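Hi F.,

I've been meaning to write this up properly since the lab meeting, where we talked about keeping a consistent format for the predictions we share between groups. The idea is simple: the sequence comes first, exactly as it goes in, then the structure tokens exactly as they come out, then a line or two of notes. No screenshots and no reformatting. I'm using this chain as the first example so we have something concrete to point to.
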Amino acid sequence: MPNGMLLAAGRGTRLGPLTEYLPKPLLPVANEPVMAQGIRALRAVGITTIGVNLCYRAEQILTTFDDGAAYAVALHWVVETAARGTAGGMKRLQHLLDDDLIVVVAGDAMLDVDLAPLLAAHRAAGAFASLATLAAEDPSRYGVVVADADGRVRAFQEKPAPGTEISRLANTGLYCFDPTIFDLIPGDEFCDFALHVFPRILQLGLPFYAFPAQGYWTDVGSPADYLRANLDFLAGRIRVPGDGAYAGPNFLAADAVTAGAALRDCVVGARAVIPPGSALTRCVVWPDVVLPAALTLDDAICTPHGIYTLDGRDARALAPVG
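Output, unedited:
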């Protein structure tokens, strides 16, 4: 049975204020941590042994997921004092993962993907390494992949400047590897799959394939991306169990207090309080947020540490939260 690896060590700097107090894998979509979806995707294909590397705010993630029993998996943690990169983090769990095929999922991406077709295509191609791709409207935000008609990878380009992209196939960070991949990862230094390991695979001429991702995937890389993931959930584009229930066009935690507030296309977390007279449209309200007064908000993210409206792809502080 394949083993799983969740990459969850990153700081999420592009998310600005949203990750100052909460690490990216714990950002709530449908009132659940983003990383829960990665665990479910692995569990859906029978993978129950999962390694996770942590660095930024590691204790918060450990406390939230513990040993993984709540998700019917066994989570094995490694905490890095300094981030070792996507491949370097996995290297520290080689003893756990190197007895079978390894499936890697980014723990800070929002996804509703069926990994079974990727596993099947990987095996059918006799691949050493495989990755899932999606067509990108803005390739400058991603690593992009050039592949032959049969899917064999020929080149990579990491976050090309606008207009310089050699492909529009975005690397989703969903990978399958032969366990001998560890032979290409140095033992005690920073190592990144896209920057260091993939070029080495191409140099050696090992069979490396790209296959279309089957389902929904988005890199929750900015406040705008994060808000859109929640709106996509409300629109039915993502299947997430969620913590709460639909109330008209909204999704509300059972103990959220919203009486007298006008809400449209909002996700409201547990114990949140929205005063009567408030008017919120396309907003995410995190658990334990108590809005200070009746407010009118559009396209906003309300956290216990501040209310942020979107300014392009960034978040702009609007008001304190009581």
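Notes:
The chain has a mean pLDDT of 93.
The longest helix spans residues 193-204.

If this format works for you, I'll send the rest the same way.

G.
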